Amino acid sequence: MHSISYRHLQPADQAAMLALWNRHAVFDPMTPALLHEKVWNDADVRPGLTWAAEQQGQLIGFSIGVVRHRETGPVGYIKLLAVDTAHRGQGVGSRLLQATECALQRAGTHEVRIGESAPNYLTPGLDQRYTAGKCFFEARGYECIGTAANLTVDLTQNDFTTAEPEARLATHGITVRRAQVSDSQPILAVVKAHWPIWHAEVTNALRNVPISLHLALQQGNILGFSAYDTNNFGTGWFGPMGTIPAAEGQGLGRVLLWRCLRDQKHQGHATAMIPWVGPIDFYTRYAGAQIDRIFDRYVKRLDKYRQV
Fold first, then answer.
1. Which residues form the N-acetyltransferase domain (predicted)?
2. 35 and 127 housed in the same domain
């Protein structure tokens, strides 16, 4: 049997990575542009956190880790991991995972999570249908701490016209419109005050052309916003969306949501994806959203295991 070598990933590996990923991650196929966004366009993906397994010059597996700095300190994530089916059971996945965990631990992290590496992430966990993946991670010390849901909205069944509810809001001095470049500083200040974890995604929306973010304002003050194409660009990804506590209960959420869904429909999408959802009832009531995927959320406490 030919020996297997390990090294760090390089941009030249992208085509082989994509082919390997799409052969095996059947519920999460990627385009070249999406893979580039997840890996090379993520400033926190450092070369030392990426690993490739090769045999006779062929890529047979890879792993990508990333560190995000949260309020509680640095947290490590396994962003992507894939091993060719023909080479499973040979310890390739375990070697890739351990090498990534060790690199994450050296970077100061004390726990590692699977997926969910917001703001740039592919999935909010491990799809429950990846049975082999579930067994793999649980056998290596990962504990399931809950679930996350992605919803889909059928955009073909509604025009998402907002003229009437916007007219009602106008009687209270509230206007809703697409954000402009001049809104960047005020909206980022509001996001920093209320939803700091969304800063990067909102920044992405403000960079899009046209800007993929809508605002609700009263006397020049931002009451809420909604955005799309902030992550997994071009896939029909909706969010984030938020209303400041003092403005809740006025119907802003529905209008902001519908404005984005209308834009996504005009982009040519038949469905919109609402990821990592908290208020499922809201999206079901106002957009007919349905649960599309369920993900298990996993964490491993590195201080419980001796890494070498």
1. 4-171, 174-307
2. yes
CA distance from start to end of the chain: 26
CA 176 – CA 263 distance, rounded (Å): 14
Q: Residue 239: name the closest of 209, 211, 260 by CA.
A: 260
- The edge-to-edge listing of strands for the beta sheet with 213-218 is 174-178, 213-218, 221-228, 238-243
**Nearby residues of 303 by Cβ (< 8 Å), 6 or more positions away:** 110
To which residue do tokens 């590496």 refer?
117
Burial of 145 (0-12, 13-18, 19+ CB in 10 A): exposed
Tokens 């969306």 belong to 241
pLDDT of residue 220: 94
H-helix or E-strand spanning residue 108: none
Place of tokens 């090769």: 54
Alpha-carbon distance 250 to 256, whole Å? 12
Domain containing 67 equals 5-140
Q: Render pLDDT for 263-307 as a digit per residue (tens, 0 to 9).
A: 999 999 999 999 999 789 999 999 999 999 999 999 999 987 655
- What is the distance between the alpha carbons of residues 76 and 113, in angstroms, rounded to a whole number? 6
The CATH number given to whatever domain includes residue 133 is 3.40.630.30
Q: Which residue from 6, 30, 29, 68 is spatially nearest to 201, judged by alpha carbons?
A: 68
Q: Which residue, 100, 115, 140, sits at the end of a domain?
A: 140
- Nearest-angstrom CA–CA distance, 52 and 293: 29
Q: Are 101 and 112 contacting, i.e. CB atoms less than 8 angstroms apart?
A: yes
Say yes or no to pLDDT of 158 above 90: yes
130 and 159 co-located in one domain: no
